Amino acid sequence: MRKLIVLISLLSLAGCLTTYRLPADAEMQPLKPDEGYFGLVFNSLDPLKNIQFKNMETGSEFYEGRLERGVHQMTLKVPAGEYCLVGFDVYDFRVDYQDKGFCTYVEAGEMNYFGEFIVRDPVTVASINFNRYVALLSKDHPEVCKEYIGIGC
Fold first, then answer.
1. Which strands, in side-by-side order, build the sheet including 35-44?
2. The pTM is what?
3. Burial of 48 (0-12, 13-18, 19+ CB in 10 A)
4. Digit-coded pLDDT (tens) for 113-142
5. How many other β-carbons are positioned within 10 Å of the β-carbon of residue 52?
6. DSSP string, 96-146
7. Least C-beta-crowded within 10 Å: which of 1, 7, 73, 110?
């Protein structure tokens, strides 16, 4: 019985740790018919970890690892739907947003730019800086940038 409880716990935890983030230098894989790219930038004076997103249609949540301080793009390949940034850890402090957090809709077959999140512990401001996102994406994923954005890559 104890082994069964441990197995169920590990499987449920594994579901939360699924990563949708495109690893740097990864070869571009075509999107499935129900998938889209979801791009955002984090601009933080502090390292961030356990960045939590939620699919508002399915209720599923996932976490994306760690970002060092500085300006970083994050591009996720996810099923189409509404996604919210609902929180993250900064040092030993958890930042959770009320009222679903910051949300956007990801359309299938598209590059969906979410925004730039300026994190100044614990305040977060969302802004639009598409040019910075494109510049960062073109360095990390030039094929994805050319295929889904084109101009500026």
1. 70-79, 35-44, 111-120, 123-127
2. 0.81
3. buried
4. 999 999 987 788 899 999 999 999 999 999
5. 20
6. E-STT-EEEEEPTTSEEEEEEEEEETTEEEEE--HHHHHHHHHHH-HHHHH
7. 1
